[in-house]
C-alpha cells in the first residue's frame, strides 16, 4: 500500500519540474512513510511514497525492467502475483525481487494492457512505456483504491489523492455546482466527478490512456454477469462460496508485516475471523464503540466473538464531544465530502489498529453482494408493488406522504413506482427527492438536467446489467458506484492517513464475479437478506451471533449525537448566513429543513448532516 503521483505534459513536451514533483509526493507522505522514489523522463515524471508490506527490502518503486523501458508505480496489492510470476517465468522472464510490483513490469512486457484483466487485487497504478511515450493509469475493478487526475492545457496531473493534483495545478479549482447537487442527493460524489471542477477520479475498472498527444478514459474491466445455467443447488452454491471465501482470505493474509482485523459485532467480520483461524492462531482484533449505555453499541458483541475464537480484542470508545471536535479534521482528510456517520469511528479504530499492526482486514462487501440493506427488500420485491392497480398505489402514496417523518418509506414507495430501470435505481440511492435538493440552490446556478448526471455516470454499465434480474442489476451499480465512491473511498483515506493498509477479502474478484451470476433467491429469500452468505456463516458461527440484530458501523448512535448536536455548534453552520455554502444555496430553504426536523415534522438528519459536512469542507477549502 502506497501513494503515487505524477505529471505528463503530453501535448506540450515541456520538461517536468522536479521540485514540483517532490512537493506533490510530499502531500501523500502519510500513505508511504517507509520509502520514496522518483522517475523523470523529459515531459513525464512520477513520484512514489511506500508503505512496505511485501518484500520489505526489494520492493522499491518506481520499478523498471532491465532495459529501463517499462516503469511501474502502484498503490495496493496484487493477490495472485505468485501465480502470475510462475506464468511469466515459464515465458522466460527473470525476476530480481519477490514483490508484486515486478510482476506488473514483466506482465506489461508480456501482455501489454491485457495484464490488467489478469490481476486479482486492489490497485491504483501507473505504467509508463518509455519507447512509446505512453502512460496508463488504471483503477481496480471494485474501486478499492482511488486514482484522481486533472487534464489541464495539455498537461496531466494525477495522484492517489487530490492533494498532489492541487499542488501540480498550483491553484484551487472552482467548485462544481453539479457535483455539489449530486453529493447532497447521495452523500457522496459519483465517479468521475469530484467537487472540484476539472479534477476527476477514475471509476472502478477504468483506465486513462495517454499517448500521441491525446488522453482517453475507457473501461478496461468489462465483465458482464450472465446468470448461471443451470443454476446451482443450494448445497452446491454454499460449497462453492465457502471455497471462494477460504481462497480469498488466504490470499489476503499474504504479508511480511503484522496483520489484524477490524471487528464489528456482526456476522460479516465474525466469519472473516473464523476463516482467518484456518491460517493462523493469533489475529489481533480492533473494535469501536460507545459503551454499554447505548443500545446499538457493538463492543460487547465484538468481545464475545473474539472470546469465541480466542483472540485479543482492543476497543476504542467514542463520545459526542470527540465526534464534534474531530469531524472537521476528518472531513479534511477525506478531501471530498462524504456524509456518512461512520467516517468518525473508522478514523479512530484505524488509528488504534496502527499501533499494533500495519495491515487490517475489514468485512465490507456482503451487504452489497447479497442484499443486506432494507432497500434491497424493496428492489427484490418491487415488481409486486408495480402490479398493484394504479389507483390503489396512488391512494397508498397519498396516505404515506401525509405521515410525519418516515422519509425513507416515502422515497421508497415513490422509487418503486418508476418504470425506467436506471431512473428507478437512481431514486432508490437518493437520500432526498431531487426536487427538494434542486430547490436548495440559488436561481440559475444549476444546468438543466443536473440531477440526471448520475445516469451519465452509469451509462456504460447499462449493457452490463441487461441480462440480470432487478436486484442483480441494482447490485452491479452498488459495486461499481456507491460502494467505491463512498464506503471504500473513506476506508482508504481514513486508514492510510495512519499508515494502515486495509484489505477487503469479500470483494475478491473471484467472489464478486461468482455471486453476480447467482439468482436473486440466493441473496434475498422469503424476506431473509444475505441468505447464501448466512448459510456459510452457519458452518462457523453459533446461532447467538447469526441472530444478532444488524447495528451498522456506528450509524445509529452517531446519528443520535448529530440530532443532539443540532442545538449547538453544528446548528450554527446552518443558521449563519455568512456560511460559505450560501454562495450556492438558499439560506431560507436550509432553515426550513432544519425547522421541520427540530419540530419532528420531517426526519431530515441525513441532508442536514450532508450540509454540515459540505460547509466544513468549504471552510477548509477557503483556507488552503
Q: Radius of gyration over alpha carbons?
A: 24 Å
The tally of strands reads 19
| Overall geometric form | globular
- Tell me the quaternary state: single chain
Strand content: 15-25%
Largest sheet: 6 strands, antiparallel
Mean pLDDT: 91
Describe the structure concisely.
The protein has 624 residues and is α+β, with helices and mostly antiparallel strands. 43% of the residues lie in helices and 15% in strands. The radius of gyration is 24 Å and the shape is globular.
Which secondary structure elements does this structure contain, and how are they paired or packed?
Elements: E1 2-8, H1 18-26, E2 35-41, E3 44-50, E4 63-64, E5 70-78, H2 81-90, H3 100-111, E6 121-129, E7 134-139, E8 148-152, E9 155-159, H4 162-169, H5 177-186, E10 200-201, E11 206-211, E12 214-219, H6 234-252, E13 259-262, H7 267-276, E14 285-289, H8 299-308, E15 313-317, H9 320-334, H10 343-354, E16 359-361, H11 366-370, H12 374-387, H13 390-401, H14 407-416, H15 421-429, H16 434-439, H17 453-457, H18 470-496, E17 501-503, H19 509-515, E18 524-525, E19 528-529, H20 531-537, H21 543-546, H22 555-565, H23 569-575, H24 587-598, H25 605-622
Parallel strand pairs: 13-14, 13-16, 14-15, 16-17
Antiparallel strand pairs: 1-3, 1-9, 2-3, 4-5, 5-6, 6-7, 7-11, 8-9, 8-10, 11-12, 18-19
Helix pairs in contact: 1-4, 2-3, 5-25, 6-19, 6-20, 9-25, 10-18, 14-15, 23-25
Amino acid at each position: 500500500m502506497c501513494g503515487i503521483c505524477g505529471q505528463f505534459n503530453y501535448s506540450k513536451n515541456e520538461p517536468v519540474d522536479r521540485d514540483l514533483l517532490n512537493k506533490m509526493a510530499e502531500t501523500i507522505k502519510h500513505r508511504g512513510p517507509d520509502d520514496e522514489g522518483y522517475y523523470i523522463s523529459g515531459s513525464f515524471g512520477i513520484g512514489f511514497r511506500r508503505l512496505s508490506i511485501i518484500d520489505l527490502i526489494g520492493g522499491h518503486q518506481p520499478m523498471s525492467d532491465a532495459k529501463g523501458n517499462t516503469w511501474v508505480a502502484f498503490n495496493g496489492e496484487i493477490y495472485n502475483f505468485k501465480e502470475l510470476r510462475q506464468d511469466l517465468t515459464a515465458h522466460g522472464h527473470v525476476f530480481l525481487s519477490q514483490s508484486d510490483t515486478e510482476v506488473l513490469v514483466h506482465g506489461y512486457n508480456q501482455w501489454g494492457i491485457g495484464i490488467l484483466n489478469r490481476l486479482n487485487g486492489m490497485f491504483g497504478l501507473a505504467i509508463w512505456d518509455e519507447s512509446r511515450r505512453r502512460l496508463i493509469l488504471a483503477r481496480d475493478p471494485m474501486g478499492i483504491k482511488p486514482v484522481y487526475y486533472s487534464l489541464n492545457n495539455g498537461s496531466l496531473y494525477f495522484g492517489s489523492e487530490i492533494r498532489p493534483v492541487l499542488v501540480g495545478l498550483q491553484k484551487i479549482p472552482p467548485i462544481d455546482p453539479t457535483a455539489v447537487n449530486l453529493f447532497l442527493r447521495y452523500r457522496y460524489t459519483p465517479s468521475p466527478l469530484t467537487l472540484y471542477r476539472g479534477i476527476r477520479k477514475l471509476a472502478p475498472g477504468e483506465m486513462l490512456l495517454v499517448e500521441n498527444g491525446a488522453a482517453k478514459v475507457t473501461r478496461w474491466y468489462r465483465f458482464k454477469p450472465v446468470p448461471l445455467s443451470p443454476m446451482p443447488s443450494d448445497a452446491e452454491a454454499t460449497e462453492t462460496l465457502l471455497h471462494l471465501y477460504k481462497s480469498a482470505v488466504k490470499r489476503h493474509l499474504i504479508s511480511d508485516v503484522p496483520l489484524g482485523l477490524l471487528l464489528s459485532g456482526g456476522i460479516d467480520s465474525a466469519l472473516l475471523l473464523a476463516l482467518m483461524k484456518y491460517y493462523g492462531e493469533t489475529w489481533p482484533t480492533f473494535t469501536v464503540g460507545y459503551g454499554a449505555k447505548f443500545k446499538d453499541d457493538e463492543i460487547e458483541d465484538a468481545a464475545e466473538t473474539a472470546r469465541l475464537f480466542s483472540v485479543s480484542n482492543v476497543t476504542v470508545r467514542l463520545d459526542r464531544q470527540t465526534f464534534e471536535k474531530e469531524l472537521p479534521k476528518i472531513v479534511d482528510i477525506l478531501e471530498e465530502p462524504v456524509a456518512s456517520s461512520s467516517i468518525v469511528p473508522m478514523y479512530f479504530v484505524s488509528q488504534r489498529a496502527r499501533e499494533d499492526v500495519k495491515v487490517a482486514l475489514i468485512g465490507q462487501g456482503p451487504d452489497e453482494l447479497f442484499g443486506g440493506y432494507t432497500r434491497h427488500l424493496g428492489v427484490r420485491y418491487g415488481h409486486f408493488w408495480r402490479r398493484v392497480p394504479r389507483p390503489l398505489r396512488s391512494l397508498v402514496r397519498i396516505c404515506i406522504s401525509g405521515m410525519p417523518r418516515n422519509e425513507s418509506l416515502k422515497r421508497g414507495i415513490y422509487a418503486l413506482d418508476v418504470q425506467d430501470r436506471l431512473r428507478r435505481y437512481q431514486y432508490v440511492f437518493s437520500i432526498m427527492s431531487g426536487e427538494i435538493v434542486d430547490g436548495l440552490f440559488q436561481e440559475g446556478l444549476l444546468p438543466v438536467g443536473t440531477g440526471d448526471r448520475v445516469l451519465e455516470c452509469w451509462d456504460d454499465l447499462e449493457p452490463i446489467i441487461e441480462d440480470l434480474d432487478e436486484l442483480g442489476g441494482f447490485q452491479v451499480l452498488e459495486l461499481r458506484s456507491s460502494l467505491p465512491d463512498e464506503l471504500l473511498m473513506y476506508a482508504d483515506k481514513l486508514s492510510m492517513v495512519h499508515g494502515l493498509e486495509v484489505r477487503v477479502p469479500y470483494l475478491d474478484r473471484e467472489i464478486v464475479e461468482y455471486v453476480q451470476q447467482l439468482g436473486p433467491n440466493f441473496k434475498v429469500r422469503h424476506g431473509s437478506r444475505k441468505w447464501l452468505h448466512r448459510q456459510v456463516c452457519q458452518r462457523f458461527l453459533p446461532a447467538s451471533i447469526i441472530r444478532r440484530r444488524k447495528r451498522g458501523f456506528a450509524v445509529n448512535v452517531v446519528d443520535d449525537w448529530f440530532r443532539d448536536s443540532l442545538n449547538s455548534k453544528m446548528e450554527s453552520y446552518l443558521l449563519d448566513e455568512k456560511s460559505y455554502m450560501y454562495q450556492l444555496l438558499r439560506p431560507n430553504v436550509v432553515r426550513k429543513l432544519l425547522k421541520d426536523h427540530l419540530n419532528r415534522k420531517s426526519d431530515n438528519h441525513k441532508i442536514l448532516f450532508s450540509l454540515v459536512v459540505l460547509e466544513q469542507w468549504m471552510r477548509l477549502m477557503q483556507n488552503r
